[in-house]
Target: UDP-3-O-acylglucosamine N-acyltransferase
Amino acid sequence: MPVLLAPEQAPTLHELLRDANTAGLDSQIIQAPNMPEPRIRGLGSLLYAGPSEISFLSNPKLSDQLADCKAAAVILTPQAYQSLFEEATPLRRDAAPSTETIQPTAATSTAKAAPLSFHVVLCSRPYLMYALLAQWFDRHRLDSLATGIHHTAVVADDAELAEGVSVGPHCVIESGARIGAGSRLGPACIVGAGSVLGRDCLLHARVTLYHGVKVGDRAILHSGVVLGADGFGFAPDPRQSTGAWAKISQLGGVAVGDDVEIGANTTVDRGALEDTLVGNGVKLDNQIMLAHNVKIGDHTAIAACVGVAGSTVIGQRCTIAGAAMISGHLVLGDDVHVSGGTAITSNVGAPGRYTGVYPYAEHTQWQRNAAVVSQLSQLRRRLRALERSED
Amino acid sequence: MPVLLAPEQAPTLHELLRDANTAGLDSQIIQAPNMPEPRIRGLGSLLYAGPSEISFLSNPKLSDQLADCKAAAVILTPQAYQSLFEEATPLRRDAAPSTETIQPTAATSTAKAAPLSFHVVLCSRPYLMYALLAQWFDRHRLDSLATGIHHTAVVADDAELAEGVSVGPHCVIESGARIGAGSRLGPACIVGAGSVLGRDCLLHARVTLYHGVKVGDRAILHSGVVLGADGFGFAPDPRQSTGAWAKISQLGGVAVGDDVEIGANTTVDRGALEDTLVGNGVKLDNQIMLAHNVKIGDHTAIAACVGVAGSTVIGQRCTIAGAAMISGHLVLGDDVHVSGGTAITSNVGAPGRYTGVYPYAEHTQWQRNAAVVSQLSQLRRRLRALERSED
Amino acid sequence: MPVLLAPEQAPTLHELLRDANTAGLDSQIIQAPNMPEPRIRGLGSLLYAGPSEISFLSNPKLSDQLADCKAAAVILTPQAYQSLFEEATPLRRDAAPSTETIQPTAATSTAKAAPLSFHVVLCSRPYLMYALLAQWFDRHRLDSLATGIHHTAVVADDAELAEGVSVGPHCVIESGARIGAGSRLGPACIVGAGSVLGRDCLLHARVTLYHGVKVGDRAILHSGVVLGADGFGFAPDPRQSTGAWAKISQLGGVAVGDDVEIGANTTVDRGALEDTLVGNGVKLDNQIMLAHNVKIGDHTAIAACVGVAGSTVIGQRCTIAGAAMISGHLVLGDDVHVSGGTAITSNVGAPGRYTGVYPYAEHTQWQRNAAVVSQLSQLRRRLRALERSED
Model:
């Protein structure tokens, strides 16, 4: 369960919206009758939010859950709010439904009290408002953490730490590394020689940047992330016994844009000669592997357990679902969407969704059908033969 | 090769069984003729166990290996023991086969000497007895390790460490964390703010618990495990250039039951609002990814490289074999068994085994058949056409 | 972009070849007219190498890139060099083509100046020469790093560190561990009790060796590698509620040969009773999982995201491409090549290439064809019926 703010730290509903709504979304508070303005200690789902928490409804299919919602306040679209009074939803109403028309405004204001057991925040984008509130609560937690350079951290004399940088216990900042203002490093992070981290980055515990890695502003890097390990490059080595490999030392780096998030235990290898590139706004989930010289376009999102082999270029605004595998030396254009578990083995030019998953079945049924997969070419031949004999 | 106990530390066969057989399994020692009771320094397979080690036969197909077994003692079922004297197995016998009937008893006792070159431990469950002995040897190794709080560990003033807790070098225990009695943390473990670890847990080197993670009693967590990294949650952000994502900060936690083991580099993300749940007795292998809000039922075992996408619920006593991939927002019932490499893309209600793997073949043969996969729908149409023309 | 050597550290072209060409490859320098011998500060691709860098041409298809190459020197085969003067490649020539016949010799020597804007290094194996140069530059970088035992490292009194061993900040070397001469450990590495590391190994930051792990000479281990975590072994435990598992403690170790490289976040589990084995010259990419008792033959190379289940034996000189999955208890012979994303589910005896990948397609097209996969057995029956009715 989410940790709640202590009551004395909790903002009022107005204060919360004022501080958290950094996007200037339209919002209007409709107070529940006879209820004082609540202090909001946390954020919860409709089912589980408690009486000190705020919740939201973004998926209309869940509107039934409003009936038993115990939240102090709920974010609703004006449409969802109005439909509450039109449908037979068994809300815990304290009075007859109001018929006034709600006009959301860009500024947060207080309208007449609604006949509900919770306060309502009208907003045309409840899901984005929820995202902003969640960010606010997490920022609040972060701001309460210790700052400064922990005395067990090992920071090279010639490393440059800008103003307000926090370095946790047992971190190692190597020679020539630079860290931008306001960045926070959790415990046991390592920033290799000459690597550069931008402003306002958040490195959770145990992130590893090798030497020669550049990360832009506002990055969020999770535990176990490794940026800049050697790409997998070997040449057959005729000097040694048959089959031996000579290492191709990887001299490139890794360059990561601004506003990138990288999930736990994801690895991005350094390039062979040039940099491996991760564009602005890219979101990488856990346990992803980007091989050397891969390039990921801006705002592309990749789910967990995906592997992208060497030198492949993926365009902008793509989504790659979990456990997809992309072969090396390919080009995927912008706005390409790859389904989970799909192996992409050739270039993909046109935007669209691409899939290649063997359908699962009960085991013996799968066995029966899979046996035929190995005869498909023969089956087609037999079909052709029949067709010819028809003619 | 397994490390052997020093001779002076090694228990006699009787002592070993007395101390290791914590499950009270039936067992009876049948001494080899003219051999003193051995001290058992380690545990080995039938092929490789040396003369100071104990071995076991659980798979009857391996009984031929008894002939050359050099172990000091071997655990056998009464049936396997008797069949030794019925078959023509060329055992290194020192005398004619005994014909006495062996009556295993619940207590360990010594029967008449057997005409074999190794001592026999009769037990109706040799594999489970082996497991217990292996646990004993590993516990013995653990008990020899240093305990206490290493002076390089960084432990917050308000963290609560119960009696007998061991904290290795370079660990970090953050504010408000609580660790139950008898738990051991290897080097460089991190327990985030407010996280709770139960009693008698074993954290190998370099385990990371974020803030707000709860782990039950007797957990075994391996190196590189990350519990509580952010789930992969983003909302389209209309404020920014097309395609940008707004982070949905993940406010839930991770709750892990009792008797759970989690393998190296496995990651379990924190929930968006509620906790990600791992039930009692769950066993997770290496490099598994459990996304936010996943729920794993009691005693389910998941092999390596499996990914489970967000909000999926898996029942009790399931087994998910290696590299299977489970899509998000699904429900898998109890006693569902998923084959390796299988992608589960819809709910699975009925117990049973489910498979979906493309059969491999020699490459050119695969190419020929795979070319037809992309025409299957057309093939079926052509077949229908032929069938109609038959009528 | 690769970090360049400072001008005063940069070797001349002759010095570089003399020092880097440890394989004694044939090489001959052909100086560009009117250009002094350059100092080489780095290595770059034909497209991006700058005027202080050396480049190479190994793939004849890229020879067009020579025209605009700004490198100080380029490694070429004699054939490629000659063809420059035969083809109409628009090179930046300063004079008419030379017609002299180039006779490469085993020793580096200087021939007559070539009429090109870059110096030429003639070599019959440009790719291997490039590998050697890249190794030289990386070794140069490594040699500039601090050595010795960092004061924050925790080294057991009875650990044995041979001459010239470097141990980075926050490392932990446990009791009885032994590290061979010239090995370097980056920050936060852990070498468990009694583990043995050979000579001249390079452990990047945050490598974990459990107890009882042996690694040979010249290993390169990347961040997040975990050698020796417990194999995934459990026996049904009838003592507890239905479905509970009894742990089989893993008493074997891991034994890694000489000249092995292991990529970031790869895990190799310890054996149940005997060791898990990784042969000499084996190359493992990132995020690979080798389960307990796996054996990998010499010079086999495995790409990222591959899983090999327990007790499987893979031969020598195999290549396993990315995201392939090998089931347990199998034997793959020597010189077997497995394609990416392929699941190997039975023994593979004959050398060759093996593939099993579901072909991807545009999503709706995939849907149409995949629907037939579940009817293949029935389809074959219908085809047979038609064939019989033909007769």
Remarks:
- Residues 126-143 of chain A form the longest helix (18 residues).
- The domain at 154-354 of chain A is CATH 2.160.10.10 (UDP N-Acetylglucosamine Acyltransferase; domain 1).
- Chain A touches chain B through 81 residues (CB under 8 Å).
